[in-house]
Amino acid sequence: MRSFLDAGEHACARQLADELAIFWEQCLAPHWSEIRDHAEADITHRAGITVRHGPGAAISLPARASRGGQPQRARPKRWAKYSGTPG
């Protein structure tokens, strides 16, 4: 970690950008259409709630996916093998 910080701000920023690009390519890009579809569905749902009941109602909505009353990040079931929890 020290060598990373000693490399300077520009080198750290470049390394972070490179690591984020790898993360995108390996983790997000293959599933992006599904991630986008979930996000768009949530936005549409919350917009409808906002129109009918006001912004407070949409903000206070629990996450659409929940387990035992606890909000969970929406993710495809096939991702469960990476998170250690059932999909």
How would you describe this structure to a colleague?
The chain has 5 helices and 2 strands, in the order H-H-H-H-E-E-H. By secondary structure, the protein is mainly alpha-helical. The chain has one domain (2-83). Strands 1-2 form a two-stranded antiparallel ribbon. Strand 1 (66-67) and strand 2 (70-71) form a beta hairpin. Residues 60-87 are annotated as: Disordered.
Give the count of helical stretches.
5
Q: What is the string of helix and strand elements?
A: HHHHEEH
Structural class: mainly alpha
Largest sheet strand order: 1-2
Largest sheet: 2 strands, antiparallel
Shape: elongated
How would you summarize what this structure contains?
The chain has 87 residues and is mostly helical. The chain contains 5 helices and 2 strands. The chain has one domain (2-83).
How is the secondary structure organized here?
Blueprint: H1 2-6, H2 9-28, H3 32-53, H4 55-59, E1 66-67, E2 70-71, H5 80-83
Antiparallel strand pairs: 1-2
Comma- or semicolon-separated keywords:
single chain; disordered C terminus; 5 helices; two-stranded antiparallel sheet; 87 residues; mainly alpha
